[in-house]
Design goal:
Layout lengths: L1 H26 L9 H20 L21 E8 L6 H8 L7 E7 L28 H16 L3 E8 L3 E2 L3 H8 L2 H5 L6 E4 L7 H5 L24 E3 H9 L2 H6 L15 H10 L3 E3 L3 E3 L19 H8 L9 E3 L6 H12 L3
Parallel strand pairs: 1-2, 1-3, 5-7, 8-9
Antiparallel strand pairs: 3-6, 4-9
Helix pairs in contact: 2-4, 4-8
């Protein structure tokens, strides 16, 4: 009887602790993780290296035309594809097809993976493309840090990276690599030494813009960011090297955007930092549109519409390509992992047939 009286409370305590661990994320408030001083200093050191290297690299063809088209491939500009993920790269086979047969001198791949989440080892073109990564969390400035980290590593890694495309694990390509390369790096513009634009959504209106501006507290963004300068846009972008350098050089706006939010429900720093910074620094150098199609018509809890297998069709791909601008969308999100099979069935006949 004595042993049983001890055993029952012990079992009860063990079960209670197990249930608390299991249910805590659902019943406790969403606490933002903060960026530690060591992590901040690590990033600052990385950014300074990228800035210093930029002054010593040979001038890129976009700055001074050294390119003879079709001859010296080492001088051809590249597109850096930067995957920001906190889960398995579900659509890596589709991306493998995207890169398949393309000249490897024309692109680079970089992956930022949350080290707190265990995912299978990267394979194929993604193998050995993981950069030193840090923890990320939705509705926190850690997503800004991760994107800036990707930009800095890509800039240091290859001075011929001219465009930097930020992509999520839920993104799929809508065109072939060659189609996208021709669109971004039009040989005629390159030969005329014309400036290339960045493709990033920049909007000055939104029903929730005021709440988002004050998500860190009333007037906390002042004086660096006035409400009239505050912008919203897509988290995913395609930036030029010139604008990427602006991003990693920034200290003034980052001091504000790195502050934790009081109102987490209105906190989406990654959707504001980049459009606000580039709008203030060089609005005319940006297209103000994104190349990633996102369906917000039936968003849930701040997440866009998620496409499921029964929705995947050739018509969907064609519809997702269409934009209000003069150019086509290059990527689309958000797709559930089980969409891979129907998408692979459309890869050669639709997606990569431009």
């Amino acid at each position: 009887m004595f042993k049983l009286s001890i055993l029952i409370p012990s079992l009860t305590l063990l079960i209670s602790i197990s249930l608390l661990i299991l249910l805590a994320p659902r019943i406790l408030p969403n606490h933002q993780i903060t960026i530690s001083l060591p992590d901040e200093l690590d990033d600052l050191s990385l950014f300074n290296k990228a800035i210093a290297a930029e002054t010593t690299f040979p001038k890129h063809p976009s700055h001074k035309n050294k390119l003879r088209l079709g001859t010296i491939k080492v001088h051809q500009p590249k597109i850096a594809f930067m995957f920001l993920t906190n889960s398995d790269l579900h659509f890596s086979p589709l991306w493998e097809n995207f890169f398949n047969g393309s000249d490897p001198h024309l692109y680079n791949i970089y992956v930022h993976d949350d080290p707190y989440i265990k995912i299978p080892p990267l394979k194929g073109v993604f193998k050995d493309r993981l950069i030193p990564s840090k923890r990320t969390q939705r509705s926190s400035p850690t997503l800004i840090s991760a994107a800036r980290r990707l930009l800095a590593y890509a800039m240091i890694d290859d001075p011929t990276n001219l465009y930097f495309a930020l992509i999520s694990q839920h993104c799929i390509p809508l065109h072939s690599f060659s189609y996208m390369y021709r669109f971004l790096l039009d040989a005629r513009r390159l030969s005329r030494n014309m400036e290339f634009p960045s493709y990033i959504e920049i909007l000055d209106h939104s029903d929730s813009l005021f709440d988002r501006y004050n998500a860190r507290g009333d007037n906390v963004m002042l004086p660096e960011v006035k409400f009239m300068d505050f912008r919203v846009g897509s988290q995913f972008f395609v930036l030029t090297r010139r604008h990427s350098l602006m991003v990693i050089k920034d200290r003034k706006l980052w001091r504000k955007f790195r502050k934790p939010c009081i109102n987490v429900e209105s906190c989406y720093p990654e959707e504001h930092y980049f459009p606000t910074l580039l709008s203030m620094e060089d609005l005319n150098g940006c297209s103000k549109y994104t190349l990633t199609n996102v369906n917000w018509t039936d968003s849930v809890d701040g997440h866009p519409h998620t496409y499921h297998p029964y929705e995947v069709s050739s018509k969907l791909i064609y519809d997702l390509r269409e934009s209000n601008s003069t150019y086509s969308y290059m990527f689309a999100r958000k797709f559930s992992p089980d969409c891979l099979k129907p998408l692979m069935e459309l890869a050669d006949s639709v997606i990569f047939k431009d």
